[in-house]
Amino acid sequence: xxxxxxxxGHRISGKADAHHTLEFYLDYVCPFSAKIWNQVYHNVLxxxxxxxxxxxxxxxxxxxxxxxxxxxxxxxxxxxxxxxDPLQFAEYSNALFNNQKAYFDEIVVNExxxxxxxxxxxxxxSTLQSSSSITExxxxxxxxxxxxxxxAQATNTGNSVTNDLKYFIKLGRQNGIHVSPAxxxxxxxxxxxxxxxxxDQWKEFVMTRL
Length: 210
Prior knowledge:
5-stranded mixed sheet; Glutaredoxin; alpha+beta; 8 helices
């Protein structure tokens, strides 16, 4: 599956002309998504880059699970980071997964949308210190929704990353992705893959397909 150029940060490893493609549909507030991310990002990815360079590209797709409101807001924040600096998308995604409990329903239930945006922007600033282009002001500007006083003034047009969010929601629906995490190898869903796989299990899976 191709990756539009504006979402280049979602290719977290490899190049577009790699022989094979491994895709992950992940939700930042899904514990199982965090589990598979941690294994793949910290162990599988370095192994692939060292032992099989140029063979596999890894692509992440945002899979929004709307029964958790923060699923939308965390994805928006990641898309805002990518819009400013695509090279920081993977590292910010890693920070979101590492801190995902801070966005669980029971923690954010009394926080406003704007308050959560500020928390997410602060996480980016504390995590992405090497990127001078990412500032709290720039992120909040992309996430900002201007409040209005009357119903007649309301347009429901979202913020500057709403259309990016729509792309991934439409993509998941089109491809019949219903759960997170969902993993595809060369465009086909691999239901055999578990979020609990060890590095050795990942190695066995990949080696039989290269």
